[in-house]
């Protein structure tokens, strides 16, 4: 089967391409610079040429500050772009995998969110991604929406200047005697390779719908940093930072842990614990102690 990956040169897209190739699929890579999902005719042309039976969309505008500064552009990519792909999924008869986010929730629940919980985004990014979800759910006949959380991977993250939280902590541990990290936000850090493998595992299923697909468990950013230092053998003091030390310009949920309830109910959940994912990532980049 041929698979087209939109955003193939992104942090998640690179791993999705590799996971499908490793599983024997033919992969068409649609990089950010050759395809604009907000442009319907451009998207149609590229997907007609791809001739894929499965299309995985990892493209999004997900820099929170940029989304707040230009909500129209954010909606064009995250909302209208998803609508375009949903229409084309029916027109060209492919299965659409569309990635979404834990930021569709406001964090007030304080227990892991399941797929049936009511979303309430706090920012432009979350609202536009939720709009994209609704477009896909109400238009596409064959789709999987996967909400993910706290992604990090070996490929550069375009929205974060090519870095990620793990790499930032490793760098700071070398440069400083003390690293200060907030502990008032709880999430599930998730290695992109694990998400990619999960997508491949779902490819043969016909159980279309909305799914949460994160690593198992949860932690604060502070606890995540501590585990990074522990597994990498970094000798640095880790302290709890006051939230005022790193004021966020954009509101974000204080608790955004997702439960893979849908995947588990179908015995399709292959996501590892977040600590195992981190260990795999550190081993991959040569930073495991």
Descriptive key words:
single chain; 289 residues; alpha/beta; Rossmann fold; six-stranded parallel β-sheet
Task: Describe what you observe in this structure.
This protein is of the alpha/beta class. The chain has ten helices and twelve strands. The strands form four sheets. The protein has a six-stranded parallel β-sheet with strand order 2-1-3-4-5-10, with helices on both faces. The longest helix is centred in the N-terminal third of the chain and has 22 residues. It starts with a strand and ends in a 5-residue tail after the last helix. The mean pLDDT is 93.
Please compute the radius of gyration using only Cα atoms: 18 Å
Query: Helical segment tally?
Result: 10
Principal-axis shape equals: globular
Number of strands: 12
Under CATH, the topology of the domain at 2-155 and 190-216 and 257-273 is which?
Rossmann fold
TL;DR?
The protein has a domain at 2-155 and 190-216 and 257-273: Rossmann fold, CATH 3.40.50.720.
Give the helix/strand layout.
Layout: E1 2-6, H1 11-22, E2 26-30, H2 40-50, E3 54-57, H3 64-69, H4 71-92, E4 95-101, H5 124-139, E5 143-148, E6 151-152, H6 165-175, E7 178-181, E8 186-187, E9 190-191, H7 192-202, E10 209-212, E11 219-220, H8 221-232, E12 237-240, H9 261-265, H10 274-284
Parallel strand pairs: 1-2, 1-3, 3-4, 4-5, 5-10, 6-9, 7-12
Antiparallel strand pairs: 8-11
Helix pairs in contact: 1-7, 2-4, 4-5, 6-8, 8-10
């Amino acid at each position: 089967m041929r698979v087209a990956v939109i955003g193939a040169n992104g942090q998640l897209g690179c791993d999705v391409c590799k996971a499908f190739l490793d599983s024997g699929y033919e992969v068409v890579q649609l990089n950010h610079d050759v395809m604009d999902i907000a442009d319907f005719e451009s998207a149609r042309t590229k997907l007609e040429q791809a001739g894929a039976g499965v299309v995985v969309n990892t493209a999004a505008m997900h820099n929170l500050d940029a989304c707040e500064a230009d909500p129209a552009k954010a909606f064009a990519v995250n909302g209208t772009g998803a609508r375009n792909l949903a229409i084309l999924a029916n027109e060209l008869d492919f299965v659409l995998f569309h990635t979404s986010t834990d930021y569709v929730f406001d964090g007030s629940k304080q227990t892991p969110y399941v797929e049936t919980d009511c979303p309430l985004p706090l920012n432009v990014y979350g609202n536009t991604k939720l709009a994209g979800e609704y477009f896909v759910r109400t238009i596409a006949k064959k789709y999987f929406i996967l909400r993910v959380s706290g992604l990090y991977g070996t490929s550069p993250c375009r929205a974060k200047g090519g870095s990620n939280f793990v790499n930032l902590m490793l760098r700071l541990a070398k440069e400083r005697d003390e690293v200060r990290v907030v502990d008032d936000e709880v999430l599930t850090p998730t290695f992109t390779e694990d998400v990619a493998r999960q997508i491949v595992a779902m490819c043969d299923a016909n159980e279309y719908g909305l799914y949460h697909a994160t690593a198992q468990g949860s932690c604060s950013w502070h606890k995540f940093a501590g585990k990074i230092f522990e597994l990498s053998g970094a000798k640095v003091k880790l302290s709890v930072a006051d939230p005022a030390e790193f004021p966020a310009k954009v509101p974000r949920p204080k608790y955004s842990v997702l439960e893979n309830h849908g995947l588990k109910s179908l015995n399709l959940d292959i996501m590892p614990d977040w600590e195992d994912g981190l260990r795999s990532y550190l081993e991959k980049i040569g930073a495991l102690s």
